[in-house]
Every structure is written in structure tokens, then in C-alpha cells.
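Task 17 of the worksheet. Students: predict the tertiary structure of the chain below and write it out as C-alpha cells. Keep your answer in the requested format; marks are given for formatting as well as content.
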Amino acid sequence: MKSQSVTPKPDDDLVRWCQILSQSSIVPDKVPAGWFTVAELADKIDRSVCNTSERVRKMVAAGKAEKKMFRIQLEEKVRPVPHYRLK
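Model answer:
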């Protein structure tokens, strides 16, 4: 008689935890008009993200632009992403 391998039954509570945690409970923010990510700005001015990021950072430091974090949908996750607008 062959012995059968017994697969342990997953803990029902643990399965429920995994299901609930895998669902995104974070709702993306509604980004107001006039706020843009560095990637969006770089695309519009036909520059690299790195170059645009440096320029925008200097504008914020000089008081010409402001920075605010908004949660936006990126692929499968909602992430906080800095957005910028002119003052």
C-alpha cells in the first residue's frame, strides 16, 4: 500500500486575509486641471524625464511652481506620484 502525501489545508482565515489584502482598497485621487507629472511634461516639451525633472525641481525651489502628491493608477497598483503646477 502506497502512502499518499497529505497536502496541508490552508488556514481559512489566512486565505481570507490574502484575498482582502490583494484587493486594492486605495482609491486614486482626482487630479485637478493644471497639475502634471514630470513624465507628462517631458512628453509635451520633447525632453527626457531626467532633464525635465531637474528643470521642474529648480522651478519649485525658485518658487515658480508647486509640487503636490496625488495617488494615481499605475499598471495594477495605485501609487503616490508627484504632480506639479505653475504658481
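Marker's comment: The radius of gyration is 23 Å. The first strand starts at residue 65 and ends at 74.
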